[in-house]
Each structure stands twice: as structure tokens, then as C-alpha cells.
Amino acid sequence: MFRSAQILLSPLLIVVVGIAFGFKVLIYAVAWIRLALNIPDRVDSRESVYDQELKVRQRTTKPALLWLSENPENSIYGFSNRRSQRIIKSIFRKGAVEVYALDIKDSEGGGYSRALLIELPENVEFRRRLFDWEYLRAAVMSFSGVIDHGQKYIFTYWT
Asked: Model confidence over 117-138: pLDDT tens digits?
């Protein structure tokens, strides 16, 4: 009896995993197509310069790479410290001036942050790269991307 149940569950498990993986691939594909065709799916989330600067000055905000290097247990979202550093470095390679870890919480042995504030460059190409990255990340999380209207920062959040 147990063997026959095992034989039936194996294909079912494969189908369920395949559907889940296929859905994730579909989300990325739709986001890339929308981006390539320049179909607007972005929100104009204007935040005052004062509010943005206030976030940078908060006690629970630190430059992300510095904070990650302070303790090997610190992390962004649920990623390892090493993976978190790779994410931050990739944002810098896209042209970010600075990347801040926001709302840092203490946990066993280290801290974690689920939000980043990215200081944008003035260079148009670097800004485009960062907004495209933010758009794809937002699409995967079922959020709308943000419009570039000359702001100094963009905010990104992991759920």
C-alpha cells in the first residue's frame, strides 16, 4: 500500500514543483517583455527630499556594505551575509552612489534588514540601469516599479 502511494506522489510532486517553477519564470518573462516594449507599469512615488534624507539619518540606517562587514551574521532579508554583500556590490556596479540598509533589526548573533535605500547617480545611463533593476525586482514581488523623475533615492523592499 505504501509503495503504491509513493509511486503516485512522485509524479504529483514533479508536476507541482514544475508549475511553481514555471510560474516564477513566467513572472520574469512578463517583466522583461514589459521592460523591452516600454509598457508603463511604474508608479510615481514621489517622496519629499526631506523624508528621504530623514531615512538616511535614522539610527537604524547604515551604509549596507559597512554594516554587513561589521558582523558576519548581518544580512539582507533572509540571505546569507555573503549573498547580501554580492547583492549590494551588484547594485554598486549598476552605478549606485551609496546603498543603505534601512530599519535594521537585531536577531540572534547579528542583524537583518528587509529594505534598502539606493542613492542614485546623476548619470542617465546608470540611473536607467538602477530603475530597470528595481522594476524587475518589483515585478517579481508583484509590486509596480518606480518612475525616474529626478529623485535622489529609490527604495526597495523584500517581502
From this structure: 999 999 999 999 999 999 888 8
